[in-house]
Amino acid sequence: MDKKVIMAVDDDADNNFSLKLRLEKLDPGCEVITVDSGKKCLELLENNEIPDMILMDIMMPGANGWETYQKLKENSTWKNIPVIFVSASSDELAEKIKGLLGDDYIEKPYDIEDVKKRIDEILEKSDQK
Amino acid sequence: MVKIDLKHIWKIADDITIGKTGFVYIINNQSKIISHPNKEYLSVIIPQSNEVSKVLKNFTGTTNYNNRFGEQIICSYIPILGETIYNNNGYWGVIVNQQSDEVFKMVFSFQRHLIIITPMIIIGIIIGISLFFSRSIITPIKKLEDGMGAVSSGNLDYHVNIKSGDEIEYLASSFNKMTDDLKSLNSKVQQRTTEVEKLLLQKDEFIGQLGHDLKNPLNPIVNLLPVLEEREHDPETKKIFEVVNRNVEYMRNLVVKTVELARLNSPNTELTMNETNLLDEVNNVVEKNKIALEENNMEIDNNIDENIMIKADKLRIEELFDNLIINAIKYSKDIGTITIDAKEDKDFVTVSVKDTGIGMTEEQLSHIFDEFYKADEARHDFDSSGLGLPICKRIIERHGGKIWAESSGEGKGTTFYFTIPAGSETIIGDIEGKIDKLQKDTQKRDDENWIRK
Fold it and tell me: Greatest CA separation found in chain A?
């Protein structure tokens, strides 16, 4: 069985590093690709590197999480990739979108086991479709 | 010689009538009547009387007497012609007779008129004075009153225009000055209010930003420390990790709770109210805390009726129960029971969460909802941020409810009560409608957010 591929989009390299380290250790059946911007995320997708799931930070310089999410939903292939928003943000927009956009919303600092649980739940659901 | 036509004189005399009874007759110097309305008396020589003798001697005067019918007569006489015509052969007299009754009748009638007219005149004068005062005093006062009404209802541009030249005009100008002062004061207050509102908003934005900036670096720390700890085998270093971990966890708890409280205080934070089943919510939270409950030998006695619906923000109500249950565990000494109950009463549901823990003093009860309050200040409590209950309070307040705690004293447990709006009984068709609406709302918010970017 192929490894499930999770793409983490976050401008904070330390966050990307710790997520990759913890998640791959916790779930050996998963591979984490990390990118530091929404732009790079879209570039990878254009190169046909389609992940099973995207973990998207909201506040990033350049194309932020919402804008990247919009681009995903405009593309007929990419729109089916499940997206979990991951943010430390607590602004009004994040508050409103919580539970309304994306497949889930995880607040930083997160508990890695909780992240794994949520990823599994969503992938299970999308497999059933 | 002047020839006088006596017929002409008669004619004149006859035509003179005075009232109903009065008449005029003329006598010549021989006391002979030469003119009388009653023709029978013509040429009759009237007997010498007081008035006849006087008039013939060139006197003018008035007298009164009783005639043969017993009526009192007022008689006036005036001499005429005399020497001019008859060369001192004496005077002619014109005599006017009138019954005194008639004269008095006229006087009485006038008197009667006076009695009626006088009060009317007085009333007229009073009305006149009233009108005058009304114009000069009451009207300006009414204007002032209108002005006060306008100002008290918030129209500070209202000015009273009174030019009466008296104290009221002075009062009006003072009133106008007061209104101007109020207006400038009002604009100052509004300016300050706007500044304060702006500052409060900036405070919320600041805490939001600070929260983000603190939570973001906490994430790798929280997640990488356990990895290091796991790889370490030296007992002393392990102990160091334990201490660092505990403090990091405390810091994380504090940051997350501070941001959450700021969020609940911010008017920009909107609660997402939905019809929610109370029992389901409580079961979710109990399930989440299953391990902690088991580890502390805590039993849950959940008596909530499965039909009770509430109108609430699901995530926030879970947070509330989470705080209350964690609190109950924390303050029970490794064993106890948490009894949860709910009572529906018209528009509100009253929920109680009762523990068998250490209880609270009156002093503690009055402060537990204060920010950063810790019941036991001497104890350095890593599990407590001092913000859990203030957050619960804000959550309930944002739902329009109340929260309070009761305790019979130390060692006797604590019961938390809160009220929350009751939801209506949902029927299946209703749920479909709600899902439909939620989807539309989501789509709308979705669109709005793209516009904002």
Answer: 42
What is the pLDDT, as a whole number, of residue B52?
A: 83
Backbone phi and psi for residue B34, each to the nearest 5 degrees, phi listed first:
-110, -10
Residue B73 backbone dihedrals phi, psi, to 5 degrees: -120, 140
Contact list, A22 vs chain B (CB under 8 Å): 223-224, 227
pLDDT for residue B452: 40
Q: Which of A36, A67, A91 to mutate to test the interface with B (most CBs of B within 10 A)?
A: A91
Exposed, middle or buried, A77 (CB in 10 Å: 0-12/13-18/19+)? exposed
Out of A95, A101, A108, the one facing B215 most closely (by C-beta) is: A108
Domain count, chain A: 1
In a domain, A96, yes or no: no
What pLDDT is recorded for position B408?
A: 87
Domains and CATH numbers, chain B: 6-105 (3.30.450.20), 186-269 (1.10.287), 270-422 (3.30.565.10)
Predicted confidence at residue B410, as pLDDT, reads 83
Which residues form the domain of A76?
13-55+65-91+102-111
Q: Which residue has the tokens 């190169």?
A: A47
Contact: B223, A22; criterion CB under 8 Å: yes
The model carries a pTM of 0.57
Classify residue A122: in a domain, yes or no. no
Domain membership of residue A127 (yes or no) is: no
Alpha-carbon distance A8 to A32, whole Å? 7
| Whole-Å CA distances, A16 to A51, A88, B256 | 16, 14, 21
